[in-house]
């Protein structure tokens, strides 16, 4: 197996060449090039199996090299490197069949995993080409066949008693004992956005599968790990020989440590009770549900016996009046400390679940609504903050996420209150709005909506600041504009409609009330 490293940065080339364990991957020769032209010369002279190339280079991009490589119909695969998370070149990389891409700076372990994935794929392709008979391929690829079997068991495509499952095993020529008990470990991987920007979903799952296989099954070549991609999270199911509770706990601890060294995502693991294959389908779905509900273990691991008791009828999580009182006293730390105490009590007595957090979220919002209601401030303007909405979507995921959301919500609450209660400039803002919209059908309700205030509160505050009502201000401005238009010789009917009166008679009455003469008389002055 021969590899070519292409990058205009000599330091990057040296890091790749000297840090990857090439012999363990079966790579015998490593070539290097610092520009596209030199890379092309090497590719013409040697049978390169894998090209590791940077995308952004001054004398031609990695995509240009990949396009030329495919056009020349050279055998081999590409691993592309990029500094940009957006990876604008993705469509072209896919078009010209790049195997993988990694974000710089890359993790050496991830680089090795990407290379291993590419090498395994090339070896399988070569075997298929050498052995056209499916039976020979099947014999040499038992790992893939076994993973496919476990996938069909967990999805329910293979279901029934032991005899049915045993026949499926025999037909696939697998060495699996249906009478034996197994442990099923289900992992849920969340917060995957950052990692998916650094590597492809396929590569990430390949690394995850191999970590699970090596730690739980003692073999890095996966034959017992099934992964499922649900767009914004992954589910990984591992089938391993029955182990005692302490050994499983140590495996989970090690896996969590290794996982966090490589990824920034969160992983939550549930270890199932020993069971036979015929019960895998129910066990698998029960464990997924336990992970979803047992938010106290988010980002950690637990066994089924540790799971919380899920309550159907949830009593109050927090005292809304107490939180509202803390808000009125501007005591954010007291709110957060109180919440932590209440939630940790539920962790201790095993009653904390996602439903509890959802109920707690509703109670926090209720306290905020009450707080603003007493101040006669409309709350709708509070929720235009994208960060607040994003944190709110995750609030029932874990205690930490609930605290983060509440902390940010309180900050937004106080900032929002301060912004709407700057009464010294409120009358100026209202006057400005009237000047810009006097032609429209506006009143105190429409203006109050613009400033997220209750109409009654706005009217009372405005009159206190200016000594006149909002209605009088709107009318006075319309009449002043009407006078200017009439002085320019415009028709009375056109003026009435332009300044916001839809009834000519009413316009004449109001105009005379404010000026002492009718519009027609005003024109004759």
Please explain how this structure is put together.
The protein is α/β, with parallel strands linked by helices and 525 residues long. It folds into four domains: 2-130, Response regulator (Rossmann fold), CATH 3.40.50; 141-306, Alpha-Beta Plaits; 320-416; 424-523, Homeodomain-like (Arc Repressor Mutant, subunit A, Orthogonal Bundle), CATH 1.10.10. Helices cover 57% and strands 11% of the residues. The chain is built from 25 helices and ten strands. It has helices at 10-19, 22-25, 36-45, 62-71, 90-95, 108-130, 134-140, 142-155, 162-171, 193-198, 201-217, 245-262, 280-293, 320-328, 332-348, 354-374, 386-394, 399-420, 426-437, 444-450, 455-466, 470-487, 492-498, 504-515, 519-523; strands at residues 2-6, 29-33, 50-54, 77-82, 100-103, 182-190, 225-229, 234-241, 266-271, 301-303. It has a five-stranded parallel beta sheet, sandwiched between helices. A five-stranded mixed beta sheet has the order 7-8-6-9-10, with helices on both faces. α3 (36-45) runs parallel beside α4 (62-71) and α6 (108-130) packs across α11 (201-217).
Could you outline the blueprint of secondary structure elements for this entry?
Layout: E1 2-6, H1 10-19, H2 22-25, E2 29-33, H3 36-45, E3 50-54, H4 62-71, E4 77-82, H5 90-95, E5 100-103, H6 108-130, H7 134-140, H8 142-155, H9 162-171, E6 182-190, H10 193-198, H11 201-217, E7 225-229, E8 234-241, H12 245-262, E9 266-271, H13 280-293, E10 301-303, H14 320-328, H15 332-348, H16 354-374, H17 386-394, H18 399-420, H19 426-437, H20 444-450, H21 455-466, H22 470-487, H23 492-498, H24 504-515, H25 519-523
Parallel strand pairs: 1-2, 1-3, 3-4, 4-5, 9-10
Antiparallel strand pairs: 6-8, 6-9, 7-8
Helix pairs in contact: 3-4, 6-11, 11-12, 14-16, 15-18, 16-18, 17-18, 19-22, 20-21
Domain Response regulatory: 2-119
InterPro entries: CheY-like_superfamily, Homeodomain-like_sf, HTH_AraC, HTH_AraC-typ_CS, Sig_transdc_resp-reg_receiver, Tscrpt_reg_AraC-type_HTH
Domain HTH araC/xylS-type: 428-525
């Amino acid at each position: 197996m021969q590899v070519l490293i292409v990058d205009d940065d000599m330091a990057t080339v040296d890091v790749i060449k000297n840090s990857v364990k090439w012999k363990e991957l079966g790579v015998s020769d490593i070539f290097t090039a610092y520009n596209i032209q030199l890379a092309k010369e090497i590719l013409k002279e040697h049978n390169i199996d894998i090209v590791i190339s940077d995308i952004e280079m001054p004398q031609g991009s990695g995509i240009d090299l990949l396009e030329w490589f495919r056009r020349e119909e050279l055998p081999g695969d590409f691993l592309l490197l990029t500094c940009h998370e957006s990876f604008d070149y993705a469509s072209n990389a896919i078009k010209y069949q790049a195997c993988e891409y990694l974000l710089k700076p890359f993790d050496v372990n991830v680089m090795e995993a990407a290379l291993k994935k590419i090498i395994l794929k090339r070896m399988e392709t070569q075997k298929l080409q050498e052995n056209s008979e499916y039976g020979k391929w099947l014999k040499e690829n038992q790992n893939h066949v076994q993973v496919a079997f476990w996938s069909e068991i967990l999805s329910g495509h293979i279901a029934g008693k032991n005899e049915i499952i045993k026949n499926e095993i025999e037909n696939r020529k697998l060495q699996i004992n249906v009478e034996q008990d197994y442990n099923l470990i289900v992992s849920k991987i969340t917060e995957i956005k950052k990692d998916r920007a650094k590597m492809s979903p396929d590569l990430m799952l390949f690394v995850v599968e191999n970590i699970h296989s090596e730690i739980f099954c003692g073999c890095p070549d996966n034959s017992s790990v099934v992964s499922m991609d649900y767009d914004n999270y992954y589910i990984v199911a591992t089938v391993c020989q029955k182990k005692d509770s302490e050994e499983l706990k140590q495996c989970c601890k090690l896996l969590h440590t290794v996982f966090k060294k490589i990824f920034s995502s969160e992983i939550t693991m549930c270890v199932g009770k020993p069971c036979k294959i015929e019960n895998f389908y129910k066990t698998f779905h029960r464990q997924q549900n336990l992970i979803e509900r047992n938010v106290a273990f988010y980002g950690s691991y637990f066994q089924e016996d540790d799971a919380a008791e899920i309550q159907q009828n949830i009593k109050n999580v927090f005292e809304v009046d107490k939180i509202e009182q803390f808000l009125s006293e501007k005591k954010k730390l007291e709110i957060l400390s109180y919440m932590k105490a209440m939630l940790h009590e539920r962790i201790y007595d095993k009653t904390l679940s996602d439903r509890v957090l959802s109920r707690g979220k509703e109670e926090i919002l209720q306290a905020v609504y009450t707080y603003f209601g007493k101040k006669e401030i409309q709350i709708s303007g509070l929720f235009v903050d994208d960060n607040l909405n994003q944190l709110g979507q995750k609030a029932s995921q874990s205690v930490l996420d609930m605290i983060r959301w509440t902390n940010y919500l309180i900050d937004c609450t106080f900032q929002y209150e301060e912004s709407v209660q700057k009464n010294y400039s409120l009358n100026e803002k209202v006057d400005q709005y009237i000047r810009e919209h006097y032609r429209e059908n506006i009143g105190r309700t429409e203006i109050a909506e613009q400033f997220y205030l209750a109409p009654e509160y706005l009217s009372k505050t405005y009159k206190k600041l200016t000594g006149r009502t909002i209605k009088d201000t709107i009318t006075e401005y319309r009449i002043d504009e009407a006078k200017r238009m009439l002085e320019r010789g415009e028709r009375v009917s056109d003026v009435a409609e332009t300044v916001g009166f839809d009834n000519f008679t009413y316009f004449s009455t109001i105009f005379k009330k404010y000026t002492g003469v009718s519009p027609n008389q005003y024109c004759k002055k």
